[in-house]
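Form 7-S
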Amino acid sequence: MILFIFRLFYAWPEAGMDRDALWWYRAKGVLFRVFFIYLATATQVAYNFTVTTREELFGGIFILLTQLILILKMEFFYKNLVKIQQLVHRLDGELYQPRNEEENIPLADARRKTTIFWIIYFIFSDGLVAQWLVISCVFTTMIVPAWPEVDHSTPHWIFLLVIFYQFLTLLLNASFNISWDSLLAALLALTNAHLHRLQIQLMKNADTRVIAVSSVSKAAWSVQRKSHDEMYNELLQCIIFHQEITGLLGDVLKLFSGPMLSQLYCSVFILCITEFRLLTDVNSTIETLKALMYLICLIVQVVQYCFFGNEITYMAAKVHQATAFVNYPDMDIKTRKLLIAFQQLTAKGINCSAKFIFTIELSMATFVTIIKTSYSYLAVLRSMTD
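Output:
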């Protein structure tokens, strides 16, 4: 579903496209987002220069900040499309394939969690846009304030055309936002799943015994020890896998840190404005429901970054704990030295953070801080307007 929406925006070209076909593909993407994204945003920016009251101002920037962040994320995506596709295709490598049913469990769990987030995000985001369409048709008002203004005095066909255009642009806006955020969440969730796979491999390597069945009688069996070379090679494979996972995570965070930091910082102000509008400028049940659903969308958008980042930090600590269960006494000197070096490496843990000028740790503590900060700004804003 994520890739389908990216293809709808001409943002996910097929592999092996020739130069001319790729040029036309990108040109269609530019025209598509100019007409459906930039033009709609420009009308909302123009509207903000025509407002005369505080309620109109906050009504105008209600969606505008989200659209501006979307444009930043969208242009980032188009500019770094090749790198993003390489990250996604990298997960098809041999190291990332589960070797047994037990290793399939964390991957299935990652798919389940990301699907739950995607469904909740989709319901509240696209459901909100559909709700706005119904309200606009019933009360003959624009879905979001924009210039030039259209109302009941406008010819009906023009009103329907503008409403349909606003609905389509907001639907596409929400869809790309969902896909962009869900792609990043999926990359973080899969990184956590592969760390879990590494923990499983280390726990299996903790048992250095091999049960051999006698060829004479299946009832007779003997316990043999793994050779030192086998133990060394298995531990070395785990270390290589750990290096690959941390390298993948580092590439994901390095690539996405800029837009992610912008989203997290702006979420504080967007949450503040939404809460302020919900508490002061909303005077009807319908308006309250609209603002509340929009607030939930913002919370889901932010919490998935923090949730999966928090999971990675926790699982990295579990990987370090798993190294303590490896059978140290049965190892030779060479394998012991390798294990000690690996333990020192995993003892540092993984600090899942977005770094671009500033640094924000992706954790549930950060999510709580964002909520608290937005509430603090809300208190200041209310005291100023009172």
